[in-house]
Amino acid sequence: MNFQSSSKQDFKVVGTRVARPDGVDKVTGRALYGADFNVPGCQVGLILRSPHAHARIDNIDTSEALALPGVKAVVTSADWGVPEDEGLRDVQDNCLARGKVLYDGHAVAAVAAKDMVTARAALKLIRVDYTPLPHVTDVDEAMKPDAPVVQEARADESVPEGSGPNVTHYCEFGHGDLDAGFAKADTVIERSFTTAATHQGYIEPHACVASYGNDGKADLWCTTQGQYLVRDLCAGIMGMEGSQLRVTPSEIGGGFGGKTTVFIEPVALALSRKAGRPVKIVMSRVDVFRATGPTVSSSMDVRIGMTKDGRITAGEAKLRYQGGAFPCGTVDMGAQAAFAAYDMEAVRTRGWNALTNRPKEAAYRAPGAPMAIYAVESVVDELCQQLELDPLDVRLKNAADAGTKASYGVTFDQIGLRATLEAAKEHAHYHAPLGENQGRGLSCGFWFNFGGNTSVSLAINADGTASVTEGNPDIGGSRASISMMAAEELGIPYDKVRTFITDTGSLGQNDVTDGSRVTFAVGLATIKAARAAIQVMCARAAKIWGIDEDAVIWEDGAAKPSGPNAGDFEPMTLAEIAAISSETGGPIAGHHEVNAEGAGVSFGVHLADVEVDPETGATTVLRYTVFQDAGKAVHPDYVEGQMQGGAAQGIGWALNEEYIYDEDGRLQNAGFLDYRIPVASDLPAIDTVILEIPNPGHPYGVRGVGETPIVPPLAALSNAVSRAVGVRLHELPMSPPKILKAIMAQG
Amino acid sequence: MKNIHVSTVLNGDETEFVCAPEETLLDALRGRLGMTGAKEGCGTGDCGACTVEMDGRLVCSCLVLGAEAEGAEIKTVEGMAVGEGLHPLQQAFIDHAALQCGICTPGILVAAKTLLERNPDPTDTEVRYWLAGNLCRCTGYDKIIKAVQIAAADMRGA
């Protein structure tokens, strides 16, 4: 059998807008999320957190708490060993502090008790003696040589001699002669920017139930983006073998990267082991803000040179990110993404990560890219304003294309940037008139997209249906897409396929649901698992017909002789072959395991119209359009949903959202009232235009779409504000007081 | 203090439960009655994931005590569908992809239902302001607003 269908065009199922398989469960309240799961005899777990931004733990006295009737266990970091692996040790130390607390909200101890009232009372009885230490929460302050030291000696080998004590990582990308490039420019603009840390803001707090048996075997049910990673981290921390811990993911109530690690799961396991009972931990919203996520905050300098006719001659970016109290590599992705949209002769990006007394950074949708591209796209826009050039024409003139050597070293294959820019230029939105105090901004966006370890199993059932078993939590409709690709490949209707997401005991390793990888990589593995099953079905038909396997082809859901020479037999459908499978060799299934490559990068362009109230500085988004290359949109509704949802998160980042720390290093706005994410009345309709430039790395041309859309809103809105009221801000969020101040300073 | 005995009408059925004096209606629904459709996203009335109808009013059940449900009529997402049929809002949310992760969906459906009972033909802006107390982090609200309007048109025609 031959499968050279990388340019497949004639889809029957893929590209339609079918109902998602989990839809009814989710509109009736039947779907079970992390906190909805219970087991008999479950104890309530609660975590005690640091009130200090930075302090030495001199002593923890748990005796009174343990003596309280109804308390079953108390744990601290002393209940665990100290892992050799640095990354695992950091995860563990973030789950329960060892020696020092490193940020406001850092977990110190935990209790398991018969009910919430008892658990709360027990927390108050734990006595912790602290010696407060000097703290630092700002990235520029943290990089100074005399800054308070968050952790000693955490610099990796990339950090140059003489860097400040909190600098843990340095990176550098680029090519060409910068000096020569800037010399060719007619105008050079250099600006400095800052962006605040923002939280993923999933509405479902972290939740889990751990049940550790006296035989050393354990079960864990939790809301997560990756049950296999949870298993590996928890097993490592608990000193268990991976096979002895089964992790089953619940439905997940949003993650956006924030559920790609563990916070409470190892603590629940430790409590359960000690208590000899199952333990459930559900985080409060305050704890979610104080101790999970957020993304990095940044301080950046960007310099770009341009000729009078809009050709970029050189670009340089210096990025300083802080990802909290533990080493963090997010700046690498920012430094690689910053100039990805441009075909440049001379480009150089440098990045530094510094430790601060803030929570450990967790991935947030295109981690590292939004802030870097915000800075670059702001400077490009300012150059366009100064040189009186059309900002879309300038992007088109400099756009990266197939064959472009990217600023981070790779040479692009087929990419959709030019197509999205052209679509934006032709769109009515770009030509619509604007009123007073209104402005239009645009920005390009980019994300790498991941592939990764993937394992899928596909069973052909005797009644002619198919069951797909996969290992990636469905965060936005992926079960529909996976079923669609299986149906497409098998040649049966969508409603004959059901996709299940399984526990860690049922399949090989699956990397977490991140990097916009699932529709690409799980889809690819599903297609190949279906092909493996088809191969078996063709062999069964060949056996029945008494002809050679190679003389059988699969078409429209049936095995057929490949031509007149193969013999004259009526086609056998999938259902017919499945019905007699027990007589032709037994059950029929296909599976596929791969470390998927060829994810195919993703580009998008956003157009935003805003109106700024010059009296208050408040910004209203009037109109918003997202253009993005999806490769092939498997389920267009959910592709649009990613584009709209990412745009909304980016709009929140641009206008409102920020982690605010006081002088004492404590988070001031740990709740949805003060950390204000966009509500329905804040936003306009968000229009979408999907482009389809096939990804050569996927049989159907699919590219991941989830992350790119959070990238452009930051600069698109800043550029729009600049054009609305003639003031350009260099910091996010652009809250009303900041805009008002800038307007008043202008006079 | 001892638990309190509460008699209420839940989704049309007479229902009794006991709860602690400080226990929220949300905890009573979820913990005592196994009705986990209402979710806790914040516990402070900011996110609307726990939205239920109480005597015809929308409330955040995390801000209501279980004991306050005495004699009240409570409606949750579990009561929206009748038999095998979905409520038009539920059907529209599935047909028009108005949910991604789905955690906010129960609260939004309950809130949208009360809107359409009061105002069968709302403007988009009215829908947006009515739902401003229900946070959704996945969708950007666009498809939610459209689905509510499609359900409204469907219900007006029905």
Automatic annotation (TrEMBL), chain A:
Pfam families: Ald_Xan_dh_C, MoCoBD_1, MoCoBD_2. InterPro entries: Ald_Oxase/Xan_DH_a/b, Ald_Oxase/Xan_DH_a/b_sf, Ald_Oxase/xanthine_DH-like, AldOxase/xan_DH_MoCoBD1, AldOxase/xan_DH_MoCoBD2, AldOxase/xan_DH_Mopterin-bd_sf. Keywords: Molybdenum, Oxidoreductase. One of its GO terms (molecular function) is iron ion binding. Residues 28-134 form the Aldehyde oxidase/xanthine dehydrogenase a/b hammerhead domain. Transmembrane segments: none annotated. This is Oxidoreductase.
Automatic annotation (TrEMBL), chain B:
It comes from the Bacteria. Residues 4-80 form the 2Fe-2S ferredoxin-type domain. Pfam families: Fer2 (PF00111), Fer2_2 (PF01799). One of its GO terms (molecular function) is metal ion binding. Keywords: 2Fe-2S, Iron, Iron-sulfur, Metal-binding, Oxidoreductase. This is Ferredoxin. It comes from Pelagivirga sediminicola.
